[in-house]
Amino acid sequence: MSPHDIIKKALEEGRYKLLEHEAIEMIKYYGASVAEAKLAKTPEEAGKIADELGYPVVLKIVSPDISHKSDVGGVIIGVNSREDAIEKAKKILENVSKHAPKARVSGILVQKQAKPGLEVIVGGLRDNVFGPVVMFGLGGIFVEVLRDVSFRIAPLSEEDALEMMKEIKAAKILEGFRNMPPVDKKALAKIIVATAKLLEDNPEVDSLDLNPVIAYPDGALVVDARIILRRPK
Questions:
Q1: DSSP-based three-state secondary structure for 174
Q2: Which CATH superfamily is domain 36-112 in?
Q3: 90 with 48: CB under 8 angstroms?
Q4: Are 104 and 64 in contact, with CB atoms under 8 Å apart?
Q5: Would you state the pLDDT for residue 16?
Q6: In the Cβ-directed half-sphere of 163, how many Cα atoms lie within 13 Å?
Q7: How far is CA 225 from CA 121, 123, 149, 222, in A?
Q8: CA separation for the pair 170, 151 (Å, rounded)
Q9: Residues 121, 137: contact at Cβ < 8 Å?
Q10: What are the pLDDT digits (tens) for 104-135?
Q11: In what helix (H) or strand (E) does residue 37 lie, and over which residues does it extend?
Q12: How far are the Cα atoms of 49, 65, 69, 95, 105 from residue 92, in angstroms, in the given order?
């Protein structure tokens, strides 16, 4: 589906938050590399998709009514076989039925489990004065406690995105630190530029968060995506 079709479908259903697979599909459309994911409607379909993606995979509940999936037992990582995927998908549905019985369930997201790497955050919002604004920072304590982030007004070039990485206080970590290798800044820049383009092209989008984005020496992957649509005034 095109970004326009994804947004139209959500608004027709009265949703102002895209489902996770929709958000991942949106950012992928703009050229960002993502941890491949597909929506399964049944545990058996989850097993089939897991086989297609290759192991290990992560299973996540998809519901417009559940924001914190882990709190309701809606996430299971390290799934390593078709049989395991079917069994764990059933377990997730049981957990959600128990802890969030009124939640609408759209299905189970089956996602290729990403290798460990350096976690960063890319975000964006629509400012009333400046319009689309993009944010970059390292994950964890750097953004949550230290607020170590940089901002740019869209549109952005790759050079703008690379400059954003230099501006954060913890920029040296991106260059390689102790036993950590340098990360692929150009791959990160591509994701930052894709975020800016998504905001520019889709005025219905109010904000988005790509968290985490995992950076490697030879690439970067969007693992989780959250997109909020603008509510009518």
A1: helix
A2: ATP-grasp fold, A domain (3.30.1490.20)
A3: no
A4: yes
A5: 96
A6: 9
A7: 10, 9, 18, 7
A8: 15
A9: yes
A10: 999 999 999 999 999 999 999 999 999 999 99
A11: strand 37-40
A12: 16, 15, 10, 5, 11
**158 Cα distance to chain centroid:** 20
Residue 78 in contact with residue 112, Cβ under 8 Å?
Answer: no
Q: Which two tokens stand for residue 145?
A: 């406690």
Burial of 198 (0-12, 13-18, 19+ CB in 10 A): buried
Amino acid occupying residue 230: R
Could you tell me whether strands 75-79 and 57-62 are parallel, antiparallel, or unpaired per DSSP bridges? antiparallel
Sign, Cα dihedral of 53, 67, 13, 106: positive
Strand partners, 37: 111
What are the pLDDT digits (tens) for 175-208? 987 788 999 999 999 999 999 999 999 999 999 9
Tell me if 193 sits within 8 A of 161, measured CB to CB.
Answer: yes
Q: How far is CA 112 from CA 36, 159, 219, 224, 227, in A?
A: 6, 30, 16, 12, 20
Q: Give the CATH fold of the 118-229 domain.
A: D-amino Acid Aminotransferase; Chain A, domain 1 (3.30.470)
**Domain-by-domain residue ranges, the chain?**
36-112, 118-229
